[in-house]
Design brief:
InterPro entries: AAA+_ATPase, AAA-associated_dom_C, ABC_transporter-like_ATP-bd, ABC_transporter-like_CS, ABC_transporter_ATP-bind, P-loop_NTPase. The protein is an alpha/beta fold. The chain has helices spanning about 1-10, 75-80, 120-130, 135-150, 165-180, 195-210, 225-235, 265-280, 310-320, 330-335, 340-350, 365-375, 375-390, 390-405, 410-420, 425-440, and strands at about 30-45, 50-60, 65-70, 90-95, 100, 105-110, 185-190, 220-225, 235-240, 245-250, 325-330, 355-360, 360-365, 410, 445, 450-455. The protein has 16 helices and 16 strands. The longest helix is centred in the middle third of the chain and has 17 residues, at about 195-210. It starts with a helix and ends in a 9-residue tail after the last strand.
């Protein structure tokens, strides 16, 4: 309503207004965004590291599309490619049939961290997007007031971000995106920095606006790591696999709005998505290389260490042991109010160590996993040392140290090896895990100064 009123009020465009004339309103089903065979790589130590591969995705008017995937699967990268904020490495992204050559004129972004300028008031922050497009002061002010009203911020126009709660700051983020009336509103984990109740409230208001038709956008794209949020909000859920990010599965939600969280259909869909995300990903296919005939040997290049501490994975193993060595993963995460992103690396770690495996919806402890969960500290260290030698990076560090006469090696040596295959953030994460695991297993010790691994004194008795 407010935006309708705003449209009527809108003064003639100022001569400085550099915005292209608004395209006609897209009809439901019209393709707004079209990604064709998109790949994206980032520069690594000596080559490009693939993040997205072979992405074909269309976003149509009238729909809410959620992108789900494990941490690092490339969700934000894909969103940024679609918004034209970063260029694709190959393939095309089109907006209303025209390939992008820069920022997408039909999108605006809401960020997890709000991205507000602290020295500007709410009103000035909201006007920013319009100012960049050369919109005149009067029109800017009126449009900002409309967006501020729509998103429930009226009364806060002259407040500075530091005076606002997290929820109100994110409302400013929404108003700033909506004020440009983008065809597609893009949201990168917009609720994940907010407390549960604030997130729930804002999510609900947003969906009410969307359903009421008062929203000035024709489609929404949402990046989230929260399966329930995706099922609550989206018409279509696209699940990305990792390394590189490919579309693993697409779910049509098809549930009536407002969605009933405790309906059987809602829960069934959550379970299906959960299963897709917890199931073992297929080994990444390298273009041009034939599929391996048998299971590929695990190496540090194809099997990264999950970001899971010994304490975390032991805790999960103990909880599964308490439930009879087998439990429904989604139920467990639900009972503990854990995000899937927190659980998955622990599950991956149990799997990599041979302590657990996922079958359908369930996580099972293996025989050795059950023994590990029930062991005293010394036994658990022995079992862990044996299992950790099956983790390629831990084995690499241990055998390299054993073969080095001094029994010591700079962390930089392993950092350099990993940098050929992983981004620097992933290298740091993996070395952190390898340090934690190796120390606990008493395979090796690590000195932060001068960043050096050395064989643990008790290493002679540890497995080869
Ligand atoms: N500018 C960059 N330069 C180099 N590597 C990058 C850059 N941006 C992202 N990456 C890497 O690309 C991979 C995908 O990152 P991206 O943020 O797109 O994933 P994501 O699925 O959104 O992850 P998360 O859920 O953790 O936010 C990660 O390994 C990340 O470290």
């Amino acid at each position: 309503m407010i935006f309708d009123a705003l449209r009527k009020l809108r003064p003639a465009r100022s001569p400085r207004d550099r915005r292209p004339p608004a395209p006609p309103r897209a009809a439901d089903g019209d393709v707004l965004l079209d990604a064709g065979n998109v790949t994206k790589s980032y520069a690594g130590a000596d080559r490009e590291l693939p993040v997205l591969e072979g992405i074909d995705l269309q976003v149509r008017a009238g729909e809410v599309v959620a992108l789900l995937g494990r941490s690092g699967s490339g969700k934000s990268t894909l969103l940024r490619c679609l918004a034209g904020l970063i260029p694709v490495s190959s393939g095309t992204v089109s907006y209303r049939g025209t390939p992008l050559t820069g920022a997408n004129p039909g999108t605006a972004m809401v960020f997890q961290t709000f991205a507000l300028l602290p020295w500007l008031t709410v009103q000035q922050n909201v006007e920013l997007g319009l100012e960049a497009r050369g919109v005149g002061a009067l029109e800017r002010a009126e449009a900002a007031v409309g967006a501020i009203d729509l998103i429930g911020l009226d009364g806060f126009e002259s407040a500075y971000p530091k005076e606002l709660s997290g929820g109100m700051r994110q409302r400013v983020g929404f108003a700033r995106a909506l004020v440009v009336e983008p065809d597609v509103l893009m949201m990168d984990e917009p609720f994940s920095a907010l407390d549960v109740l604030t997130a729930e409230n804002l999510r609900g208001e947003l969906m009410e606006l969307w359903e009421s038709g008062r929203f000035p956008t024709r489609a929404i794209m949402l990046v989230t790591h929260n399966i329930e949020e995706a099922v609550l909000m989206a018409d279509r859920i696209v699940v990305l696999g990792s390394r590189p990010g490919t579309i693993r599965e697409t779910f049509e939600v098809g549930l009536e709005r407002p969605r009933q969280r405790n309906s059987a259909a809602f829960e069934e869909l959550i379970d299906r998505v959960y299963r897709t995300m917890t199931g073992r990903p297929k080994e990444p296919r390298v273009p041009g290389r034939p599929e391996p005939a048998g299971p590929e040997r695990r190496t540090y290049t194809n099997t990264p260490l999950p970001t899971a501490s010994v304490d975390g994975l032991s805790g999960l193993a103990e909880m599964v042991a308490h439930r009879g060595d087998r439990c429904d993963l989604a139920d467990l995460a639900d009972d503990l109010v854990l995000e899937i992103d927190d659980v998955l690396p622990l599950v991956d770690a149990l799997d990599l160590l041979g302590f657990g495996e996922v079958r359908g919806d369930d996580l099972l402890l293996t025989r050795v996993g059950a023994a590990f969960a029930g062991a005293d500290v010394q036994e658990s260290k022995t079992l862990f040392a044996e299992a950790a030698m099956g983790a390629p990076l831990v084995r690499l560090i241990t055998t390299s140290l054993r073969q080095n006469p001094s029994g010591a090696l700079r962390a930089g040596f392993f950092r350099d090896l990993l940098a050929h295959h992983y981004t620097s953030e992933q290298v740091d994460q993996q070395l952190e895990t390898a340090t934690d695991w190796g120390r606990y297993a008493e395979l090796y010790a690590y000195d932060a100064d001068p960043e050096e691994y050395r064989l643990d004194e008790g290493a002679a008795s540890t497995p080869r």
